[in-house]
């Protein structure tokens, strides 16, 4: 197969999943073409002869107040379809990628048009898609994709009910590279961030309001009153400075490290003792899964798709949004009882191995790809 993957190039969850999945299909011998505004964050294997990258350029013109990204992406994709003969376009995120994919499919000048698979990741539906400026476009893009998948049952149901989308949405969970994310000791690396007798807590996100990074700081402040510990904040975004100011205000800034978009997140997770994810919206929780695969228990909120990933009382503890006190207490319980911590760490890794491994998830996408190809000679949706 010749597959085009449309994705966000940054360090966010949808771009990471899209890259990893595309590389999985490349390893199976398929020709994979990544299409984005710059080389994707996780795309480190361009040396493979069957992996390609195509950059989307945008024209700057005084008449337009902002670049016409969707049109530029659709034009680049249409050229790629005609030149290479793409069989499947896999768009990760409804706006702008599914919109561009549907437009490109419909405007290409070739007899055999590709099929469009759209994977919904979360905020493309729960935030961007519900904005009245994008609602109808999001609905149209989803309903006119040949196949639609969602990364959790929660997101599939949310799309059907809140967006009034009338079509089948297939649930396929995100997968995880269990060789990349795994428990392993890195004592020399760990001592850069914490003393041997200190616990290391970690948070990874895009530092947007929905991630509630102020709650991360407040949870850690309470934990550090009881447990000698340090906090690593990984990622970047609009709420980062606010989190830094709060840490300073609470007198814990010396125990909190803001590391930005750390390239080898697997090493950070491997040296962590606990992962914090107090989001107010989370359609899956990929960062939590990466922590679990690394043998790290999770304290998070019980919203969205998180309960489908983290089992409360087994691989972590889940609490209501904003319940900083309870989350801090759960964190302290895990960090002060070695036997409980080890039990949760083992359960977390086992869950990642059994439920989210490539051997389980990749065949689901293979089935979807195979059925999607049949649509080229039949119906437009299934």
Brief description of this entry?
By secondary structure, this protein is an alpha/beta fold.
Task: Identify the notable features of this structure and list them briefly.
13 strands, 6-stranded parallel beta sheet, 15 helices, 382 residues, Rossmann fold, 42% helix, 2 domains, alpha/beta, 7-stranded parallel beta sheet
What does this structure look like?
The protein has 382 residues and is of the alpha/beta class. It has 2 domains: 2-175 and 358-377, Rossmann fold (3-Layer(aba) Sandwich), CATH 3.40.50.2000; 187-355, Rossmann fold. 42% of the residues lie in helices and 16% in strands. It has helices at residues 13-27, 69-84, 94-107, 123-126, 135-143, 153-162, 187-190, 213-226, 240-249, 265-270, 286-293, 306-309, 324-336, 338-355, 358-374, and strands at residues 2-6, 31-36, 51-55, 88-92, 115-120, 147-150, 170-171, 199-204, 229-234, 256-260, 274-277, 298-301, 316-319. The protein has a 7-stranded parallel sheet, with helices on both faces. Strands 10-9-8-11-12-13 form a 6-stranded parallel sheet, with helices on both faces. Helix 2 (69-84) packs across helix 3 (94-107) and helix 3 (94-107) packs across helix 5. 49% of the residues are buried.
Counting H and I runs of at least 4 residues, what is the number of helices? 15
Count of strand segments? 13
Return the CATH topology of the largest domain.
Answer: Rossmann fold
Could you spell the SSE succession in H and E letters?
Answer: EHEEHEHEHHEHEHEHEHEHEHEHEHHH
CATH class of the largest domain: Alpha Beta
Question: What's the number of domains?
Answer: 2
Q: What radius of gyration results from the CA coordinates? A: 21 Å
Spatial arrangement of strands, main beta sheet: 3-2-1-4-5-6-7
């Amino acid at each position: 197969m010749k597959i085009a993957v449309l994705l966000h190039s940054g360090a966010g969850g949808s771009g990471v999943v899209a890259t990893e999945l595309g590389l999985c299909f490349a390893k199976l011998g398929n020709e994979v073409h990544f299409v984005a505004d710059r080389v994707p964050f996780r795309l480190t294997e361009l040396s493979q002869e069957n992996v390609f990258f195509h950059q989307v350029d945008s024209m700057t013109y005084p008449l337009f107040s902002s670049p016409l990204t969707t049109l530029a992406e659709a034009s680049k994709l249409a050229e790629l379809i005609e030149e290479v003969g793409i069989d499947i376009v896999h768009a990760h995120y409804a706006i702008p990628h599914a919109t561009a994919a549907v437009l490109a499919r419909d405007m290409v000048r070739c007899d055999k048009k590709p099929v469009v698979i759209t994977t919904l990741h979360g905020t493309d539906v729960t935030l961007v898609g519900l904005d009245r400026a994008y609602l109808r476009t999001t609905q149209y893009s989803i309903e006119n994709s040949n196949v639609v998948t969602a990364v959790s049952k929660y997101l599939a149901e949310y799309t059907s009910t809140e967006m009034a989308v009338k079509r089948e949405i297939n649930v396929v969970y995100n997968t995880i590279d269990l060789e990349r994310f795994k428990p392993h000791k890195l004592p020399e690396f760990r001592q850069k961030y914490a003393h041997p007798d200190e616990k290391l807590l970690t948070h990874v996100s895009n530092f947007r309001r929905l991630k509630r990074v102020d709650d991360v700081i407040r949870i850690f402040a309470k934990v550090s009153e009881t447990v000698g510990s340090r906090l690593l904040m990984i990622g970047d975004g609009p709420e980062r400075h606010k989190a830094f100011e709060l840490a300073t205000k609470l007198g814990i800034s010396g125990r909190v490290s803001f590391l930005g978009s750390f390239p080898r997140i697997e090493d950070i997770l491997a040296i962590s003792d606990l992962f914090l994810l107090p989001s107010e919206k989370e359609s899956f929780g990929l960062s939590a899964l990466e922590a679990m695969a690394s043998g790290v228990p999770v304290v998070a909120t019980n919203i969205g798709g998180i309960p489908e990933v983290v089992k409360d009382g087994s691989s972590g503890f889940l609490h209501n949004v904003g319940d900083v006190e309870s989350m801090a207490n759960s964190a302290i319980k895990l960090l002060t009882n070695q036997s409980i911590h080890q039990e949760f760490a083992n359960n977390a890794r086992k869950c990642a191995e059994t439920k989210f491994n490539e051997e389980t998830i990749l065949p689901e996408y293979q089935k979807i790809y195979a059925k999607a190809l049949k649509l080229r000679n039949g119906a437009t949706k299934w």
